[in-house]
UniProtKB/TrEMBL annotation:
Keywords: ATP-binding, CBS domain, Nucleotide-binding, Repeat, Transport. SMART domains: AAA. Residues 314-372 form the CBS domain. Coiled coil: none annotated. Belongs to the ABC transporter superfamily. The keyword Cell membrane does not apply. GO terms for molecular function: ATP binding. This is ABC transporter ATP-binding protein. CDD domains: ABC_OpuCA_Osmoprotection. It comes from Streptomyces flavovirens. It comes from the Bacteria. The keyword Cell inner membrane does not apply.
């Protein structure tokens, strides 16, 4: 969708902002451009919509050389979101959102209908917020309007220049979550400029790590964190890149342990027998549809308590998460509930219980992820050396 071929931007004073840049962004891909101030990432993005013209090289948009396209017409094909949002203070939220459809000659009713649809999509009820003015909105709400306005004419490409940089950390995380949800639905081709490596890792399908005017590494987040291409990249992503990698490494079924399982209406004696047979200290309790209910400790299923059913002794399980959640979320859930393990369920099959993730298995999953990238093999096929494997049975 977007292709740079040997693009250079050199200013009259001899400063080279971008030097011989070549890369490609696939359709529907979100690429984050990350690096320190003055490294050329914003210049790169502004050359896509010709707010800045390159000195050398060519840029293509969906196969078309953008130098042959009228700049105004080009910009109407591209959504643009900036940190300061840039809403018109004298126009309502609905009017701001309908700006581009109006410029494209859409009928007023159609433009307002599209604007209302997009406000709803970004979580702003048009019946509540449509007639308000920008000064009546919070910073986070203004950012959402900016995103809605950029999407109003359904452009194939979205350029975002540090769009969440001017809000507090709590609002920023919420906006990132909402944008990921939105991108999953609309699948735009996105160039997203940020100076924050954690934001780049969290949002990007791939990350372009900039040095001075050059891309030092262009890879998926897990690769950038697990196998930095240069000492510069390793230094930029930080010594804690292993912790950052937790946020881009999903929980897979191969990471899970399978503890004893009993059902709510099983006789307590059955739980006793199963725990004793497996030498376990607890069992997971499921309902009649194999969905997670809770757990039962061995002392509650002791031989002295053989009467009744599991239901009478089961404890609720609060520490759980869906398959595919990032390891960072798993780690946070363990800490939040002071849990030695967390249950993992399959959201795609009505919450069916799959297994449990322990701290040791979480650590193994992270190590396998790093080794899998290094060896270019599936994660499930990587064996890692553990204390248990070294010590033997």
């Amino acid at each position: 969708m977007i292709r740079f071929e040997h693009v250079t931007k050199r200013y009259a004073d001899g400063t080279t902002a971008v030097d011989d840049l070549s890369f490609e962004v696939a359709e529907g891909e979100l690429v984050t451009l990350v690096g320190p101030s003055g490294c050329g990432k914003t210049t790169t993005m502004k050359m896509v919509n010709r707010l800045i013209e390159p000195t050398d090289g060519r840029i293509f948009l969906d196969g078309d050389d953008i130098s042959a396209i009228d700049p105004v017409q080009l910009r109407r094909r591209i959504g643009y979101v900036i940190q300061q949002v840039g809403l018109f203070p004298h126009k309502t939220v609905l009017e701001n959102t309908a700006t581009v459809p109006h410029l494209l000659g859409w009928k007023r009713g159609k433009g307002r209908e599209r604007a209302a649809e997009l406000l709803d999509l970004v979580g702003l009820d048009p019946s509540v917020y449509g007639d308000r003015y920008p000064e009546q909105l919070s910073g986070g709400q203004r950012q959402r309007v900016g995103v809605a306005r950029a999407l109003a004419a359904d452009p194939p490409v979205l350029l975002m220049d540090e769009p969440f940089g001017a809000v507090d950390p709590v609002v920023r995380e919420r906006l990132q979550n909402e944008f990921l949800r939105l991108q999953a639905r609309v699948r735009k081709t996105v160039l997203f400029v940020t100076h924050d490596i954690e934001e780049a890792v969290r949002l990007g399908d791939r990350i372009a790590v900039y040095g001075q005017g050059r891309i030092e590494q262009f890879d998926p987040p897990a690769t950038v964190l697990g196998a930095p291409a240069t000492p510069y990249v390793a230094d930029f992503v930080g010594a804690d890149r292993g912790l950052k990698r937790l946020s881009v490494t999903p929980v897979e079924e191969s990471d899970l342990d399978r503890p004893p399982v009993v059902h709510l209406d099983d006789p307590l004696a059955k739980a006793t027998e199963r725990l004793r047979a497996q030498g376990a200290r607890w069992a997971v309790v499921l309902d009649g549809e194999d969905q997670l209910h809770g757990w039962i400790p061995a002392q509650d299923a002791s031989p002295a308590k053989t009467g009744g059913t599991v239901r009478e002794h089961a404890r609720r399980m609060e520490a759980w998460l869906p398959l595919g959640a990032p390891l960072k979320q798993a780690f946070a859930t363990m800490l939040q509930h002071d849990a030695g393990w967390i249950a993992v369920v399959d959201r795609e099959s009505n919450g069916r219980f799959l297994g449990v993730l322990t701290p040791a298995r979480l650590h193994e999953a992270l190590r396998r992820s790093i080794d899998a990238d290094a060896q270019d093999v599936p994660r499930a096929g990587v064996a890692v050396e553990t204390v248990a494997s070294v010590a033997g049975p």
